[in-house]
Amino acid sequence: MPVFTVTGLSCGHCVRSVTKAVQGLDATAQVQVELASGEVRIDSAQPAEALAAVIEAAGYSVVAVK
Description:
Layout: E1 3-7, H1 12-25, E2 30-34, E3 39-43, H2 48-57, E4 61-65
Antiparallel strand pairs: 1-3, 1-4, 2-3
């Protein structure tokens, strides 16, 4: 499960935006967002690069992937 460090996450709306973007790519993806740390954990069959791209398309910056 990749863990993305994302900047710009500050509220519940941000969580919903990221979740909706990821689930638009993979409807079965499980998304966990930690606002305090900016970490987004995604359980998905999609490659990390594709997941990062949809997060960035939603208006957030992916600064690291573990």
